[in-house]
């Protein structure tokens, strides 16, 4: 096993963890690890593996935003509430490391819905938003895991 393959494996593993614990750009690290391996390995198989894995992650990225967004629309949570949640999530990320993104998002959605709907209806909308975030993470993780399996198959095929 070459040094490039080991480094690629580390990047892929850190990327998978980064999806679940949103500190690092997980999918980018997974694709970056596979790219590193493709550059070092060279050949048609390595580049085909990289291309297929990248397409899978790209499709997963699109789905990760479309599906939860549609579910929130169906639940009656407006886009403006989601954007307020995202904005406070970004602030929270810098104020409280690691969990601040999550806490800021929840607080932002709750406050936006509190202002829009009142106390009684704010929490159900917040729960819908939390489920959407969870679904988004699951979709991104699934795409990254499929890309990882494609890479592992490529590793075996390239030997």
How is this structure best described in words?
This protein has 159 residues and is an all-alpha fold. It has one domain (3-158). It is 89% helix and 0% strand. The protein has helices spanning 3-20, 26-41, 43-75, 79-95, 100-117, 119-158. α1 (3-20) packs antiparallel against α2 (26-41) and α2 (26-41) runs parallel beside α6 (119-158). The relative contact order is 0.16.
In brief, what are we looking at here?
By secondary structure, the chain is mostly helical. Helix content is 89%, strand content 0%.
List keywords for this structure.
mainly alpha; 159 residues
Q: Give the number of domains.
A: 1
- Globally, the shape reads elongated
Distance between the termini: 10 Å
**Radius of gyration (Å):** 19 Å
Which structural class do you get from the secondary structure elements? mainly alpha
List the helices and strands and how they pair.
Blueprint (H helix, E strand, L loop, with lengths): L2 H18 L5 H16 L1 H33 L3 H17 L4 H18 L1 H40 L1
Helix pairs in contact: 1-2, 1-6, 2-3, 2-6, 3-6, 4-5, 5-6
